[in-house]
Structures
1.
Amino acid sequence: MSFPYRNTEHPVGPNGQNEVTLTKLFRSKLSNPSPVPIPVCEGAAVLISRSALVVSGDLSHDSSHHPQFVLAEFSLRASKRGFNNFLDTTTFVNRPWDLIGHEPTILSNPDARHALYMKHHFFPGLHDYERNVHNSVLGVALDNARIKQNGLRILVDASELGPQQMGTQVVTLSMSLALAQHESVQSVIVAVPDPQNLPVYAEALRMTEKVSVIASDNLNFSNAPHVDIIHRPYQPSRQIPWDRWRQISKRIVITIQDVIGYRNGSYFRNWEDWHSYRWTFRDQIEKTDGIFCISRDVTEAVRQERLPIDSSRVFVVPNGVDHLSTNSVTEIPGELIDRGLASAPFILILGTTYAHKNRDLGVRVWQKLVSKGRRISLVMAGANVPFGTNRLEEAIAVSDHRDVVVLPDVKEKERNWLLQQASLVLYPTSAEGFGLVPFEAAQMNCPCLHVSFGPLKEFLGNSNLPGSYDLDELAAAAERLLDDGAARRQNIARVMATKDKLSWKAHADTAVEAYLSIMENNAR
């Protein structure tokens, strides 16, 4: 029952604390105050039920027996009568050492163990199992007590932190930094492709207390210490080396950002690739200890698809949205200078060319505005994808318009400039698990036209925005946001009102609460 090191007695209280401060700490962080069943009574202090004494007989009065032996034998005798032994994990008791050191538990003494076995043939099997197996009921209880005192040790799979910064990279980096600020987190280990060559946008990892960076090493995390949680904060689309991850962690968490690829075969070369993706997706979900969904919308999709995980292991953990600000560093894209559009008003469509982003619908909205005599350019920025793209439809739609600029995936500074300078951002999609663009636009004091259904309605319910993809309705809403100052301010203010509720600090608070709940459940 030793703490904080299991089966290892220690002469000094954890981090200089004593029985009073530790008990106060444990009781202030209760999530499940139920006592923990154990096979035989053991510990620095033992309380005995009067009823057990009445039914099971008195304690042994043989003076040759050690008091711990007497208590253990009585608890085994009482268990035959239907009584149970429990550990109170909310109370810390300090048993002092004598001058020659601590006295080890009598249940490790070979003679005492044999004597107890002769009296009770079911001892010591379950006792030894609970004492030594890390995922036993006792093991889980002691782990959670240690976490309450020392904090969580979290390893973040950041193997997607490559040179391009898109939504996945923003989420992974912001989450890691926010977790490091949380009082219940002891350390955050971030596994990246190359620790010696971090992308510029990720340099903050090196300068943040409690954060260390290691090589992801093809997801093997060769230099990783032992941790409580390994968290993959994006799609489970790649086979995880489960034996290795289980070896260095107690629990594994995966974030599901959406089920778009799971449901949409157009993003794959052929049926075989899509089937492989779906099989891998389900296989990883079936093995993980818990999943985070970034919206209730995604949680409902997980339920609809009957993904193999119990609802008690599914947690809604929304992303933060406060990673940008109006004073972020900016840089004008060179293409706009070359085209002489550096100071021209423009509408921005931001996002990859995946068909579900509906960028071509945004083009048609812009065309409708231009057809009414409005002089405004269109800028589309985002990486091209090989399959499931609507790039051809976009190209056809804008083939005869010189006021259209198509940019590849832009750098962070260029994205900041585009958001700050745009007259309006068009975001004509609802097929997202969350949707960062409207929040990023508002942070840069720019209105965003999006639809009011799906996850965007969940977080940004707005009766003034379109409830469908009707082109006339979208164009009319765009005109209001371009011409009506009050409508623009209201659009931005409605989004900014979510800043505290959807901050990265709030994300870390929700994530830590979910981690602790997952730690209280057995690993799968």
2.
Amino acid sequence: MNTAKTQHTFHIPVMGLSYTIDSPIKVAHLGISSVISIIEHNMIEKMREHYSKMFNFPFEPITPKTEDFRAERVTSYLDLVNDIVKMKFDKLKQSFIETRDELEKYFELLPSFSELKKHFEELIANNKSIQEIQRWLDENLTLGSIDVNIMTKLDGANYNGNEKLPTEQNDAHVALRGYANSSLESSIVLSAGMNPRLFSYMENFDDFYPDQNGNFKKKIIIKVSDYRSAFIQGKFFAKKGLWVSEYRVESGLNCGGHAFATDGYLLGPILHEFNKNRKTLFETTYAIFKDALTKKGKIVPAVIPSTKLSAQGGVGTAEEHNFLLEEYNVDSVGWGSPFLLVPEATTVDETTMRILSDAGEDDLYLSNASPLGVPFNNVKKSTKDIERMELIKTGQPGSACPKKILAFVTDYGDIPICTASKKYIDIKLAELKKENFSEAQYNREFSKITEKECLCNGLASSALLANNLNTLMEGEAVSVCPGPNMAYYSGKFSLLEMVQHIYGKVNILNTSNRPHMFIKELKMYVDYLKNKMDEAAFPFSDKQMKYFETFQTNLNDGIEYYKNLFAENKEALKENYEKLIDDLEAFEIQLKGFVALSA
């Protein structure tokens, strides 16, 4: 496994627009990597002011009068985060001489197998001098990475009045430029698939190219749901002279936020394919990468640059965590939703934290709330959903749409509008009234039109509320997008408790009946297929039949893979083995029923 100086075997993925907006400030000096969303510049500017005051840094507002103000806001916030983290890290290393609280916490959080931890304990036990220990700390302690995320689909055009601005002013382009111009030495995580125009734009920034030593100041991570898309994207970047330093595999459904379902491909088989073919992937892309760099007159690394494989989506026990590391040779495992209950790592307002803590399996569901038209993991009784229903009751459904990040519909004019906006919903409801529908059919269509949430505001407001900041633009209603794994955690946890749970030192689950992550994902895919079939008009078209049959075949192949995998690990699984096999066989029978229905 290629650890490349990483002390931990987990990372905290991006969550919403605001839940991890300041996570690096909280955990990076302790060696833990996390990911910030950088698409929403208004909330970012408010957080920059907040943290400038907290840590006594000078603050000058970046107003719309400032040239390229959106990108400047992103750059300035990331530079501030970088400065704060470095300051805290220096203080931590120096604390050995005075109070050692943070330094001791750094080592206490490390896994028991950590060589770094063992070496430090040896230095103390051997009564090494303060100067020698201090020098060792300076040379060996490492920061967690301050990574950033851009959802590539969020690349809508911006306007100055009715004038459409150039492509470089599109939302994702602005965020990318803001990151590229920052002082960070970290990675950008690109999620939600290909955006060739955005990916090509990265060629303009020197920090993404290798230096004399073959290192990158800024690395590229792509979040993918299957090997084929990773191969396509890796080669696309390589042709530009850009290198993908990490392939981050995420479950299509058993995750938080937007759920980009595969055609029935399951996480285990996908990781197996990655692990089996990673050498081919790296060697193929490296050959293309070398050729492109040579043509550009850039420095060409003599060997394949360090490249990682990571995984995330539904992991919830130390056993699952370790299995991913050992079976698939992943370098890091993403732990997302459980960290929403850890105030030392994420920022969640108290009301939302109570909703998350109390949520059971039935409260967590795949919704159609996203204006993107992509399934969205949701929780019942969120304050945003309550607000949405109250607006419907008053006859005023929809949002004012002040930010327009998700405005993509151009059916009603040249300037795009959002499907969660009051303007769009009013138009669609007026159209609906003209239809000669039955009451039941009308109600179904009404629900479809009005179920969209203003995520631009809802996913940004929690951090503002938690820090008592201005929410005049966002409002106080909160959207939250935990994965199904949230159901198995209750209460509020310290950072140490959560990390010890990850490494198997304690167990903080609220039940002993939590399903295995692979079984949970399989169930979600079977349910997803059933819903797709229920929604389709019968008899199915040839195209629909082909899709359903492919989906079922992939699920059955996945079940067969898991049967073999669990059999190979029967001894390690112990009493859980029989239950896992019973679950797989039950899903097999259910899928056979689907085949009968479609015949």
3.
Amino acid sequence: MQKGSIRVQTENIFPIIKKFLYSEHDIFIRELVSNAVDANQKLKTLSSIGEAKGELGDLKIDIKIDKEKKTLTISDTGLGMTEEEIDKYLNQVAFSGAEEFLEKYKGQNEANIIGHFGLGFYSSFMVSDKVEVISKSFKEGSKAVRWECDGSPEFSLEETEKENRGTDIVLHLNTESEEFLEPSRISTVLEKFCRFLPIPIFFEDKQINNPAPAWTKKPSELTDEDYQNFYKELYPFGEPPLFWIHLNVDYPFNLTGILYFPKIKQSYEIQKDKIQLYCNQVFVTDEVKDIVPEFLMLMHGVIDSPDIPLNVSRSYLQGDPNVRKINSHITKKVADKLEEIFKADRKQFEEKWESLGLFVKYGMMTDDKFLEKANKFHILKDSKENKYYTLEELRLATETLQKNKDGKLVILYTTNPVQQDAYIQQASAKGYIVVSLETIIDNGFISQIEMKWENVQFVRVDSDIVDNLIDKQEGGDSVLSKEDEEKLKGLFAVQIPELNVSVEVKGLSTEAPPVVATRPEFIRRMKDMAAMQGGMGAFYSQMPDEVTLTVNGNHAIYKTVLAEVAPEKQEKLVHNLADLALLSQGLLKGNSLTSFINRSVELMS
């Protein structure tokens, strides 16, 4: 048996680093600027414990382009490196100076140090033919040194001249990477990755970052205006947010950030991936689906945590118990905040429900812990009055009228108050409360929530005649003879493309319409859901609509219809009445609608 150590040769590892270390080459700027930030942060730490003598001076980072020399230079005024340190940190792949520093100075503001893997510096070789490092240590008597490497295993290290403490990294860009000689390209990358780094960064003599963003401060230090201004900084063209939640946790994990509820327009132009993940103020990603619950992906803002495990390129989240804990914590914080607002200022909460409701309903559908809390502040809007009910308030308000024979609360709802107005009017005349459920997710919401809420049934107001909405009733006797009822049934048995029409005659109220078109709740709901899902769902959505035409035998108009002696005119009158009912359901389209219009004009003339 042979045992030994695996040998890694730089001849083999450099091509891998250059080609595969990062999925996007512009990340080298983030890595090198993050290293420069660390150099400054380490010096601040050493100064605070008396290990760095003298004035710190301006701690900053400068980025310069030289188009003639085809170089990009990143300079810092941090602690710098001696010849021994350069040999130790640059000539040993994946030896992290940050990791060693954290171990040595444990407890001394280590949360501010960014790097951990020791590979970030080598990202410079993805875009460079040659890299120079000129550095002068903060240590007294140190001499400046210059390191140079062309991406091969060979390097040179020599003394040089440098007036001030710190490190300059000079990238001699290769032909494929000359895009990084354009100021606009560098500005775009800095804006994405470095806009909130904690050390001032200058490019083209302008500071491009905010070193102390709002989420790094305590909530007690911020005003509403501060939160609003930070939102504008993140989303310059966005509308002002509804509310915000400031995350500030240091146990059992470190988590800071600010999450905003955006105003969502009626058009539902919903945008996900608007939450940015940072690690010690370094941008990592805007794909945070593992950290933030799915239903809160519609929120905007920033999360920053050094405890979220990342892979070597800091680009993707890895499975970890901390991520699950953070996910649960964010859910709880959002639920607590919404309950707090609801209790403190219900009027304001109700005014913003159109946008808030989308978050709340989505959460209730997908997260049972959130559902438990949301039951206290989820509200339903009366379609006739500007009034809102929680579930319990609606139970009390409808206790006598809207409980069916099985003891279930029947929640009558409308998906389109304008189109379904005639049905709402009839329900209101009976004393029923009809709530509005008009959002893009309401169809899925009611189907799921019926399984989660006890003794609750949702019924759309146009799914049956008003007498049958709460409990199925036997049809009342109409004033028509059986012979006339059968004749009307025959007349109303019209053939309409894409519709399966059934006809019944009942004795409804004399104030009720002459014909009521209804679509069975279950079938219509399934078709609506199928239409949204696409794929096989689209197949079901193309199936004919099931429609029941309930002819009101007590309506006075039928005396005229039955008295008409011209069979052709009688058929046209009946067809028009049927079409009017179908029109109220939005089911009269295309050629059928054209025929209705032409027939109406003909009858009037």
4.
Amino acid sequence: MAGGYAHTMAEWRSDPAQFWLKAAEAIDWFEAPVTAFDPNAGSYGRWFPDAICNTCHNAVDRHLPTRADQLAIIHDSPVTGTVTKWTYSDLYARVNALAAVLVDQGVSRGQRVIVYMPMIPEALVAMLACARIGAIHSVVFGGFAAKELAARLDDAEPALILAASCGLEPGRVVEYEPLLSAAKELAKDQPPVLYFQREAFPAKIAGNDGDLTALYGAALEAGRTVPCTPLAGTDPLYILYTSGTTGRPKGVVRDNAGHMVALAWSMPNIYGVSPGEAFWAASDVGWVVGHSYIVYAPLLIGATTVVYEGKPIGTPDAGAFWRVCADHGVVSLFTAPTAIRAIKKEDADGELPSQYDLSKFRALYLAGERADPASIAWAENALKVPVVDNWWQTETGWPIAANPMGLETLPIKPGSPAVPMPGYEITVLDDDGVPVGAGTMGNIAIKLPLPPSCLPTLWNNEARFREAYLERFPGYYYTSDAGLLDDDGYVFVMARTDDVINVAGHRLSTGVMEDELTSHPAVVECAVVGAADAIKGQSPMGFVVLKNGAASDTLEAELVAKVRAEVGPVAAFKRVIPVPRLPKTRSGKTLRATIKKIADGESYTVPPTIDDVGALADVEAAIAAYGA
């Protein structure tokens, strides 16, 4: 779409239906949409209701005439010491082979398939094979706890599970078969598991389970093919579960047509990536970033996607990301701020990037949690390219707010993911649902309808969808994020609404306090929570991860002074506790609610998405030592 950001937004606002029908021209359709949006379908309407399409066809088959020999997938695995490269022709053969296996197993259109795999290229093949035959995939990241996996089995009721036998992490092997067996014991039904065998720990095949390696290999050798199933544009492509407050996970539904249109639009316009270029989203296929920007978006436009089985540090060092970018000619890297902070902790002066040829590298994109200005500044200095925050959710599937580098590079304001993307009319509301002025913090909401790719519902639970997202502020989608819009229309996402603390009647953003803490040269990252206070209701408590050797007797006083100077005495900020690491999810989000429970001395349940359980013990020990 030609023109800069202002022109593009004006084009969308003047005729949203025509804007998205024009964007839909980037997709191959069996029957092209005539109607962009049906306002009478579902809870707020549905996109491209009359389209007939197939996502696998658009991600794989349609590229064969023009780029059969171009690389589609590069799998870089420092934990195994291997690099695997597949062309679009290779990918076509492999996806067809696995689709044939699914058909042989009796899987058909509309049935669900759980994919339980680590960061291996076969995970992408499994997802695309499901899309090819119209099965609905639900990816659960490899190593997920048995109880939580069972909850997803009960909700999705899959016909089949495609799993790897194990995952590999630095220094350890995560065996998947015991977790799957335990989950099946807990679940209502016991669907068969087909195991892709990995040498480090082959699974023991028993009962109704099978050997995916053998079945897939035979189908590949025989050159079997399966045609793409024509699907309604509103048919689900996948279900992706997010943790729910009731203990039952929320199954976010993504439909085929709107998903393709939005992602295909985003690659050239937001990320500035062209067909044939290498794009790397350093995430996991179990998370929405992995779905959107490891698997679907790069392949939809004919780019090359990098799949990485490793860590930002320790495989082997803090230069791992820059080595991958250099080796594979990556033009843009998308990762979480927590990965940058981990690298920054090991390479405080930003010396490692200069050891690699990053001449093709154009931009670093951050998402997953709020990007603190100090980490953005470090990355800009180390990489000499724009460092661009963007904000979105599992529910939306693509950025709500971003700096549209493909349209134009807008001024970067550290702490802001920049401006709303087409389709997202962002409004900040007070607790009564009244819009507030620029610079005033409140509840971030999006005026309905949501744009293409955003969830139309939750799997088998329309009532919960309405309650969670639509009823809080009628006419709006409730993001559960708090923040503000400035005079230039930039969005500042300051905290989850649950993380806005109330100190003696004053609603304060933990994000502002965290920005001040991380701006201190001794602090790598931090979390501020509102600990219970008998007098004030809540009082802020800061937890900081320090650079090596940065601790001092005066550090707490320095940090308290910085926060009080910015926020004022009303914050009553007095406590700063050093910790060796913060407890986080595998996607990099800091578990502030759990930290708060520890600070308040309450019992807590270990979150199923936690990356390292030992970090909780670190917080408990640090609080105990501080109190002593």
